[in-house]
Write a structure and sequence with these properties.
CATH class of one domain: Alpha Beta
Helix content: 55-70%
Strand content: 5-15%
Distance between the termini: 69 Å
Length: 651
């Protein structure tokens, strides 16, 4: 229950202090404005001048929101120039430390997002006669001060002995209780769990102009990249947060969906060549803003600003920032025209989308970026990702993988810390070069530069699965999915890896969660049909495969239809689907490994090995699953199988 303070008034000065004679009590604390002391159970606590003034100001306005502007006027005179946001945060933290308060679960000072602070504990004003007094001079044997009344001896002996004894007992009990509480708070109270997973929400552009929206997107992308450099944090990818740009969901719902403990919420305002960015950090499940700050910079210095914000957030939440992290955060990044930066962000997003049209549009946009900024490493890395995405599903690897490799190497040449460049080069080494050692090294360096690189974890998961290191592969793919929970390919791979591990129930459950989120993902639905066939559920298998092909009629989904029917023993349906697949192969690329898998499940070994030989000759990416996929069991005893495994250097 809130208690309003009677008779509290302010002097008309910049100090913002209540009447200097006032004495406040809250909980086990007393704030004495006369002696400028904070006491707990009668014991004086150390509190510097500015934190004392801030606490007095908040207490005198108990129950009301005190704005940050009011606190600025109370703590600093108008002719004082100071980094107000950082200064206020430090003063608030000192007060909370003295009160043993927790910003996430406040007992005294509550942060009101975007506005200020509020003192929430019950407060009462005391008469000085009610306050515990220091022992008088008479009690210590010294002379009484002049003018003080001298009580009669009889009154002291008859009235005070019992009262003093009771007071001593009461104070002793209070001190014991306080000590017990202090020990519990220090040693037993559960600590606030550290923030390890964080998401940066799309920056909100205050201006309605379309160009400002593009700048807001690129600012979001840069901020994610900067915070991702901190090894002790896992940061959700740009792809997975951008759908929340126009979301009507609450912040708590978004945090639950992304499985994070904190969100960074920001707004952007542009005036000429200057930008003002206000960012705040909100902790969950308490949904408390634990930090906020406003930055104003030249628009061309965006990346340097994001690096500064990343450092500020790390300092605020107390995460470990290594010397290498700091080095990467303070390094100078060449300024990029904001319009080109926005163009790059759009191109990169499209180049990593599923679908040939989107990928090719993204590649064309990125080529324009390189024409304007020929030394911009991220554009080359994104181009490499786009060409890699076209491989096998849409175009022959021999046409796409060399381009992916060349662009990735160019990105690394321009920026040796390019985690995106190294992640895609590592996957080229896995799927096309079959150079496991080189791939391992690229993934290691990518994760050293960016511990939140979903692409690096995805590539390393593929390498682990090809090597038969199943548990490590599952750990990596699940971590990649946590960082990029809206990646369709990661959802597919999380299911496929469980199927390769022969954990069919887990695979179906993972697929169910993925399809609940994106029910139109026909490729995954048709693959679920293959898993159901492996489990012996023929009816479910047929339903899922046919539904998947209707949703996404791709060579791969038709290949799954042929494979699933073969596994289920529906040979006529399998042959029919294979006929469709071979017909498609006459006018567009079809991965030979998918044809070989269906023939293997039909027990047609000669046809299966012929198509596997073609897959090796094409360097088809799926050939690395030769040892992993369970539907190849019917041909594994054939000597030709072992020879092919040796041919691609699988362990």
């Amino acid at each position: 229950m809130h208690v309003r303070l009677p008779g509290v008034y302010f002097r008309n000065t910049a100090s913002g202090m209540p009447d200097p004679g006032q004495l406040f009590r809250f909980g086990s604390f007393e704030l004495d404005c006369a002696s400028r002391e904070l006491r707990k159970n009668g014991l004086r606590l150390k509190l510097e001048e500015q934190p004392f003034r801030l606490l007095a100001f908040l207490i005198s306005r108990h129950g009301d929101i005190v704005t940050r502007e009011e606190l600025r006027n109370a703590l600093w005179s108008h002719d004082t120039y100071v980094d107000f946001e950082r200064g206020l945060t430090r003063v608030i933290n000192k007060v909370r430390l003295a009160l043993a308060d927790d910003a996430a679960n406040p007992r005294f000072i509550e942060t009101v997002p975007r506005r200020g602070y509020r003192f929430v504990a019950p407060v009462s004003t005391l008469d000085r006669s009610q306050a515990p007094q220091e022992p008088s001079a008479a009690a210590t044997g010294g002379p009484e001060p002049l003018g003080s009344p001298v009580p009669l001896r009889e009154e002291r002996t008859s009235n005070l002995v019992g009262r003093n004894t009771a007071l001593r007992i009461a104070w002793a009990l209070i001190l014991v209780a306080a000590l017990a509480g202090l020990l519990w708070f220090r040693y037993e109270r559960p600590p606030t769990p550290p923030i390890t997973n964080i998401a940066v929400l799309p920056v909100h552009h205050v201006d309605a102009d379309h160009a400002e929206g593009a700048l807001a997107e690129s600012t979001t992308d840069e901020l994610i990249a900067s915070i991702s450099r901190i090894h002790s944090l896992r940061v959700v990818s740009f792809r997975s947060v951008i759908p929340y740009t126009v979301s009507k969901k609450s912040l708590a719902e978004i945090a639950r969906e992304l499985k994070v403990e904190a969100l960074v919420d920001s707004s952007l305002h542009v005036a000429g060549t200057r930008v003002r960015l206000t960012a705040r950090l909100i902790r969950f499940p308490a949904e408390r803003a634990v930090w906020s700050r406003t930055y104003e910079r030249d628009a061309a210095g965006g990346i340097a600003l994001q690096n500064e914000i990343a450092q500020n957030i790390a300092e605020e939440i107390g995460v470990v920032v290594s010397s290498d992290d700091r080095k990467r955060l303070v390094q100078q990044t060449p300024a990029l025209d904001p319009a080109v930066q926005a163009l790059y962000t759009k191109g990169r997003f499209l180049a990593t989308e599923p679908g040939r049209d989107s990928i090719e549009r993204g590649i064309r946009i990125l080529q324009k970026v390189i024409e304007k900024e020929p030394n911009y490493a991220p554009a080359y890395a994104a181009l490499a990702e786009g060409w890699f995405g076209l491989s096998s599903i849409y175009l022959p690897p021999v046409e796409t993988m060399p381009k992916a490799r060349a662009f990735a190497r160019k990105a690394i040449e321009l920026d040796p810390d390019s985690d995106d460049g190294r992640a895609v080069l590592g996957r080229v080494h896995v799927f096309y070069d079959w150079d496991w050692t080189a791939a391992e090294e690229q993934f290691r360096q990518a994760l050293e530069s960016n511990p939140s690189s979903a692409n690096a974890y995805k590539g390393r998961a593929c390498l682990r699965m090809a090597q038969g290191r199943i548990e490590e592969a599952l750990t990596d793919i699940d971590l990649a999915l946590r960082i990029d929970p809206r990646s369709l390919w990661l959802h597919f791979m999380a299911v496929a890896f469980r199927a390769n591990a022969r954990r069919y129930d887990d695979a179906v459950e993972q697929a169910r969660r993925s399809l609940d989120w994106e029910p139109r993902f026909g490729l995954l639905r048709s693959f679920v049909g293959v898993i159901q066939a492996m489990k012996g559920n023929k009816t479910d298998a047929a339903r899922e495969m046919e539904s998947g092909v209707q949703q996404q009629r791709l060579p791969t989904s038709i290949g799954f239809l042929a494979l699933g029917n073969a596994v289920a023993g529906r040979n006529i349906e399998a042959e029919h689907a294979l006929s469709d697949l071979l017909s498609i192969a006459r006018h567009q690329y079809v991965c030979p490994f998918e044809v070989a898998s269906a023939y293997a499940s039909l027990r047609k070994k000669d046809e299966a090995f012929a198509w596997l030989a073609k897959a090796i000759a094409d360097r088809a990416d799926c050939i690395i699953w030769l040892r992993a996929e369970p539907w190849l069991d019917p041909i594994r005893e054939d000597p030709r199988y072992a020879a092919m495994v040796r041919q691609i250097w699988l362990p």
